[in-house]
Amino acid sequence: MPFASSEAVHQKMSTLARRDTAPELALRRVLHRRGLRYRVHRRPLPDLARQADIVFTGAKVAVFVDGCFWHGCPEHGRREHRTNGWYWPNKIVANKDRDRDTDARLVAVGWVPVRIWEHEDPQEAADRVADALRVHTRARGRP
């Protein structure tokens, strides 16, 4: 049995969506309505074992929709954990370190990572993605 505080908590945690979450679907709907086409849950780089939630392969833009709890949102991330306080702070720091490493690897080979918090308005998040696409495509000399 994992370290979950109870069997009920273990069951709940094991059924949490890792992909196609509500914030991710909302963002994808807005992007699609704007005529933007993308790949879903792909590795931007073949040697990178991490997947982006939305990938624009031609423009080399990778979008990650980060959960506030799991990625340590400055607005909504927990400062104290009542249960398993020995585990969560280190886990969230490791997640943030992995996110920074992923971003650095992508940038090093000419990709643009876009990080969206799950609480962000989908329209505003889509604006940020569209801006990244526009700027990066223009910078690479593509129409």
Describe this entry's structure for a reader:
The protein is 44% helix and 15% strand. By secondary structure, the protein is an alpha+beta fold. The chain has a single domain (28-139), classed as VSR Endonuclease (Endonuclease, Chain A). The chain has a 4-stranded mixed beta sheet with strand order 1-2-3-4, with helices on both faces.
Provide the low-confidence segments as ranges.
none
Please count the beta strands (DSSP E, at least 2 residues each): 4
Which sequence of SSEs, written as H and E, runs from N to C? HHEEEHHEH
Rg (C-alpha, Å): 17 Å
List the total number of helices: 5
Terminal CA distance: 54 Å
Q: Order the strands across the largest sheet as they lie in space.
A: 1-2-3-4
Would you give the CATH topology?
Endonuclease, Chain A
Number of domains in the coordinates? Answer: 1
CATH class: Alpha Beta
What's the name of the CATH homologous superfamily?
A: VSR Endonuclease
CATH architecture label: 3-Layer(aba) Sandwich
Residues in helices, as a percent range:
40-55%
Q: Give the biggest sheet.
A: 4 strands, mixed
Q: Which shape, going by the Cα principal axes?
A: globular
**Structural class given helices, strands, pairing?**
alpha+beta
**Average pLDDT, all residues:** 87
Approximately what portion of the residues adopt beta-strand conformation? 5-15%
